[in-house]
UniProtKB/TrEMBL annotation:
Coiled coil: none annotated. This is 6-phosphogluconate dehydrogenase NADP-binding domain-containing protein. Signal peptide: none annotated. GO terms for molecular function: NADP binding; oxidoreductase activity, acting on the CH-OH group of donors, NAD or NADP as acceptor. It comes from the Eukaryota. Residues 7-52 form the 6-phosphogluconate dehydrogenase NADP-binding domain.
Length: 99
């Protein structure tokens, strides 16, 4: 007997305020048909959702999003408490490692 498991994993971009305001961004991977089934739930909680295919792609895209969002903040010397500098630096290092 073979067990088949369908799974969708979603990385989330956004902090407490975007979560409260329903403005999260979902970066999902896994089973496409299951993703389509649960998509309406993502639409309630977020402003955007993206299906990125295979596992690992969501984590990579989250690093890219954090790198893009973090870079304009660093250039402007803005360091919001919602995303501490030590975490921003970690994500920048990991994103650079993707290339």
């Amino acid at each position: 007997m073979m067990l088949q498991v369908e799974l969708v994993q979603g990385k989330v971009s956004g902090s407490k305020k975007p979560a409260k305001d329903g403005q999260l961004i979902f970066l999902s991977v896994g089973d496409k048909s299951l993703y389509e089934t649960v998509a309406p739930l993502s639409d309630i909680m977020g402003k955007s959702r993206f299906f990125l295919g295979s596992f690992g792609n969501g984590a990579a895209m989250k690093l890219v999003v954090n790198m893009v969002m973090g870079s304009p903040s660093i250039v402007k010397s803005l360091y919001p408490t919602t995303f501490p500098l030590k975490h921003r630096q970690k994500d920048l290092r990991l994103a650079l490692g993707l290339v």
